[in-house]
Amino acid sequence: MSADEDGSDSTDGSASTDGSELGHSAAEKQLHEQTSTDEAGISEAEPQVGTRPQGPERDLGVQGRMRENTVVPEHAVVPDEVSRLEVVGVREGAFGVSGTGDTSGYGGLRRPVVMPGASERPYGDWFDAVVDRLGARDGDAGLPAAAIEMVVVHRGEMTVHVRREDLVAVVSRLRDDPQLRFEFCSGVSGVHYPDDAGRELHAVYHLLSMTHNRRLRLEVAVPDADPHLPSVVSVYPTADWHERETYDFFGLVFDGHPSLTRIMMPDDWPGHPQRKDYPLGGIPVEYKGATIPPPDTRRTYS
Fold first, then answer.
1. Could you tell me whether strands 214-222 and 157-162 are parallel, antiparallel, or unpaired per DSSP bridges?
2. What is the domain range of residue 178?
3. Which of 11, 57, 91, 301 shows its CA 20 to 30 Å from the CA of 46?
């Protein structure tokens, strides 16, 4: 009896020792091979984990520009889904403590700080129309091609990264253009990424169009060494106290603000409490003669 007759060896994989059908047809195999080839091509084109996308300028809005590479430390744990995100730093320990160690048991924890990377067209929904309108030129009026650095669409929300020198022009167009009409700025906040070299401080603006029932986020990045950016109070008066709070907690200086003073901390308070390089603080606690220092000043017990 031949191998084919007893079903123990089938060249097309369609039969097994018990005669059951486990294989696939030739057409299915060909489709599987083609799909595997396509997926391999896609994975090769994607940016490597631990780096930001690089290459020539691409169409990421009016004219997007890729940011510089950031390398992840050797022992950092990078989840698989991070391959399309931008790694801007690595967090160590449970409290982000470095140097002194901590006693939480998580002193060896190292996780990347990631943000969504630049999106490509089509963005979907009304996002493309807004970006197109921002880049449109009416006669001699219009924004510079480089005003929009990057467009990010993530979880159904759009963030437009703007150059600081073009911020006022961008928000003016967003407010005044009949096709945009983002009349209301609901808040200004700050973020500190100490490892994002040259872009350590970010100002984030949340805009609302009551006319079109849309929400949009603007983000401006500035270096720690030059934390200045223009105030938008002349366009959105509601940003007055929000900019003061962001200055108070993060040290972002909003040039042109009518009264840029602290709003929460005393005027003579040293530093800006919500920056990641600010001490964690805490009050030393005495317990039967023993002193328990704040968590960021504890030594490692090993």
1. parallel
2. 117-255
3. 91
Q: Give the number of other CB atoms < 10 A from CB of residue 93.
A: 20
In a domain, 67, yes or no: no
Does some domain include residue 19?
yes
CA proximity to 170, closest of 60, 61, 57, 56: 61
pLDDT at 190 over 70: yes
- The answer on pLDDT for 288 being more than 80 is no
DSSP 204-241: EEEEEETTTTEEEEEEEEE-TTS-EEE--TTT-TTHHH
79 sits in which H/E element: none
Percentages of the chain per state (helix, strand, coil), in multiples of 5: 20, 25, 55
DSSP helix/strand/coil, 153: strand
Mean pLDDT of 4-24: 44
- Do 24 and 131 lie in one domain? The reply is no
What is the pLDDT averaged over residues 61-77? 43
Would the pLDDT of 63 be above 80?
Answer: no
Long-range CB contact pairs, 98-107, < 8 A, 24+: 100/296, 100/297, 100/298, 100/299, 100/300, 101/298, 101/299, 101/300, 101/302, 102/295, 102/296, 102/298, 102/300, 103/295, 103/298, 103/300, 103/301, 104/295, 107/300
Structural domains of the chain, count:
2
Question: What is the percent of the chain with per-residue pLDDT over 90, rounded to a whole number?
Answer: 41
Say how far apart CA 203 and CA 76 lie, in whole Å. 27
pLDDT(221) > 80: yes
First to last CA, the chain: 71
Instruction: Give residue for tokens 């467009």.
Output: 151
